[in-house]
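Please, structure for the following, as tokens.
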Amino acid sequence: MKVAIVHELLTMRGGAERVLRILGDMFPDAPIYTLLYDEKKLGDWFPKERVKTSYLQNKIFPTPYALLPTPLRFNHHLYLPFFPKAVESWDFNDFNLVISTSSAFTHGIITNGKPKHLSYIHSPARYLWDRTHDVLDRADKGILGPIKRRYLERTFHKLRIWDSEAAARPDKLLAASKEVQRRIELYWRRDSEVVYPPIDDFWLTIKTQNPKPKTQSYFLIASTLVPYKQIDIAIDACNNGKRVLKIVGEGPDKKRLQNLAGPTVEFLGYVSHEDLKNLYANAKATIFPGLEDFGLVPPESMACGTPVVAFGKGGALETVTEETGVFFEEQTSDSLLEAIEKVEQKKFDPSTLHSQAQKFSRERFEEDIRKSIGEMNCR
């Protein structure tokens, strides 16, 4: 069986790229198609020889874009109107099965039933649906704000029409969580099956029995630094509560967040798995403040024997329990600080935390994927 894998953007490391990496290991001969590819950032995960990019990368695109400096050339916001045509341009006739992982566009590839198309949906594009007004409000700021807003309003309207039509193309949809499943039904009017994304085996090999006492008094965030992750409310809560907060990750919102940070907040940037394991293991709790479709950070933290303080909506409700963390009900610094105070007073059983994390193993994920493929009669 000849398999191809399709992924939106290979320009930064995140949870979606970790899932892609596992799919790539499951099908080592499958080429990986992507709209844009940054070899410097992802070349060690996805070698150049295996990646097939769209014409947007290959400079067949109009010269002004091809001549952009690298940081701008990989800014996907510049390409939004052109992504649908790019994903539709790929020809998969030589394959039996195409597996797409989609957060916005790749579910819209054209296969016409030959080959079969299995699409793993991380989320219907939030900026096209439930976060549209937030995005437009942010774009409206500044001297050029009204122009940017009008441009995005027109662009989003066209993309929503395309997105609704393209959602009918895959032969089968897998949703990354019940929250994503709900949104697939709401926006696309399609059924889907839930297959939770896995955490790396690395985390589940950590032994949490007879744990060492936590040697430091800090809270931890591990996240891409973008506005919707709501890291600013965690910074505000720790500023006000004089709690030490360590933030792991990089992203375009870093400068703004650094300007908000008080003396108890430290930015660590990108860290290795081994260093992150130690940070998880020694933290009082990991803070997960955003409204997420799923989120790999809570299971990783629990695998290291550390509870989670999470916003009580979305995917966190499917990973965190009352035995493994504390929820806060409003996305405000005051509500989060109350939850921080609660988690400081509770005792958590490391074996219970680890058992909860095991529900999101790679072995279980691979079994679910192979089962779904077996049901599709791809040969």
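The first strand starts at residue 3 and ends at 10. The CA atoms of residues 56 and 63 lie 11 Å apart.
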